[in-house]
C-alpha cells in the first residue's frame, strides 16, 4: 500500500485569483471552554461542515480554518480545541492546552464563546482559567453567550453577560445566541463583517475551508468514532493512515486506515457485534468524504490492538 502523499497533507495554495475592487479582511479566533458550541457557530457562519460537532469535549484537536466571504469582505475563522486547565504530561493534553493560545496571538479579533448553562450550574472551571490567560493579550473581543435558548429568564442571561464582560478589559461587543437554533446568528455575522479592514483576500471567494485532504479524512473518521463510542473509549483510538492512492481504472481515491487500540476488550466494542459498529463508521465516513471531495472514495478501516502503552 502507498502511504499518504506529501501533497495530500498540505493545505491548498491559492495564488493569482481575482481580488474585488475594495477587498477587506479579518482574522478571528473562536475560543472558549470545551463544548461551548464553537464548532457549531463556525459551521453555521461559514455554511459548511468545517469543524467536527460532537457532544464530547476535545473533538476539535487542531486549528480548523473556515472562510466566510460576503460582498467584498472576507473573514477567516479559526476554531480551536476547548481551553482546558488539565496540564497533563501526556502529549495529547499538551497539544490541546497550547494550540488555542497560538491562534489568539495571530488573530485580529476574538470571539469568546461561553456556554450559558454551565455558567449557571457552575460546572466548568475552564472559564476562569481562560480569562486569566487572556489578560496576557490585548486583543479586541466579542463576548458570545451561547445556548441561551435553554434559559427562560432573560434577567439571568443579562446577569451572566455583565458578570463576564468585566473579566476581560478588551470586550467591545456582546451577543446572546443559540448556535443550534440559529438565534441571533445573523446578528453575529453582521457584527463580524463590520470589523473587517482594507486588505487583500487570502482565498478565492468560493472557498469555505482551508484544510488538507489528509486532515479532512482524519477528522471525518474521528467524528464517526466519537458519535458511536461512549465514555473515554473514543479518546483511546489512534488513527493511522496506511494507504492512499488513486485507482487506475475509475480514478477512485482508495484510503486505508488503521485504528489502534490498547486492548482487545476495547477493540471488540469498536468492532461491534458481527462488525456492526466499525462497518457503520466506515460507511458513514466514506459517504461523507464522497460529498466533501466530490469524487468516488473507497475507504477501508482495520482495527488493531497495540500492546504498547498509549
From TrEMBL:
It holds the Pfam family MMR_HSR1. Residues 32-39 are annotated as: G1. Keywords: GTP-binding, Nucleotide-binding. InterPro entries: G_ERA_dom, GTP-bd, GTPase_Era-like, KH_dom-like_a/b, KH_sf_prok-type, P-loop_NTPase, Small_GTP-bd. Residues 146-149 are annotated as: G4. Residues 58-62 are annotated as: G2. GO terms for molecular function: GTP binding; ribosomal small subunit binding; rRNA binding. GO terms for biological process: ribosomal small subunit assembly. Residues 79-82 are annotated as: G3. Residues 24-198 form the Era-type G domain. Residues 177-179 are annotated as: G5. The keyword Nucleotide-binding applies. NCBIfam families: era, small_GTP. Belongs to the TRAFAC class TrmE-Era-EngA-EngB-Septin-like GTPase superfamily. Era GTPase family. This is GTP-binding protein Era.
